Amino acid sequence: MLVVGATGRLGVAIALGLARRGDLPVLTARDPAKLASLADLLAAEVPGPPAPTVCADLSRPNAVDDIVAGLRAGVGTVDDVVLACGPFPRTPFEALCREDLERTLTVHAVAPLLLVHALAQDLATAQGAVVALGDAGTTRPYTNHVAYLTAKGAVRTGLQALAVELAPAVRVNLVQLGIVADPEADADPTRHHRLATRSLLGRFGTPEEVVHVVLSLLDATWATGEVWGVGR
């Protein structure tokens, strides 16, 4: 089980959720210190073999090769992939430039799609699944995030295309998230209230609720090419 973007807030929650149910997550992210800390956290939380780690920066051309090589050296093959790539760059429209678009598209769309392509035979042999985290902003855009929303829209379409290419052996699905609570970012109670009231439920989601949906999609053997919207 490969978790891409494992050291982000939702990536950590997903890795913990997988370990607690008995899976052995392979953790990949760009910061070796954060990877080591997460591996220690999992070891403290769940008895068993330590979670393998692979350090790779998705913005670099060799990232996919590095991840695949790390997998081969560590666990050999992989059965499922969770794409929890987390960078959320703010790109005010007035300052938007080519580099913003290219970097964000690479991290959120190009590298993840190429990674699934590189692991397609592993996934097919295991009759495995890919689950990715998307953003409801791709259908309800908000300001100052053109590059991020463009990249999330691209990976959504790319994964739906891969669902067709990899069927019936591999299931590929996406969770389209609304706002997930972040105590640090949501410290302003006025802003918190204003954003929360946009939801039909009047509140933000939690990382634990995201984990529940991701695990459900990993186990949903009659679902592929789906976009599950949560947090409206």
Shape label: globular
Number of domains: 1
Rounded average pLDDT = 93
| CATH topology term | Rossmann fold
CATH homolog superfamily:
NAD(P)-binding Rossmann-like Domain
Q: Helical residue percent?
A: 40-55%
Class, according to the CATH hierarchy? Alpha Beta
Order of helices and strands: EHEHEHEHHEHEHHE
Largest beta sheet, briefly? 7 strands, parallel
Cα(first) to Cα(last) distance is 29 Å
What spatial order of strands do you see in the largest sheet? 3-2-1-4-5-6-7
What is the CA-atom radius of gyration, in angstroms? Answer: 17 Å
**Low confidence ranges:** none
Structural class: alpha/beta
Question: Per DSSP, what share of the residues sits in E-state strands of 2 or more residues?
Answer: 5-15%
CATH architecture: 3-Layer(aba) Sandwich
Q: Helical stretch count?
A: 8
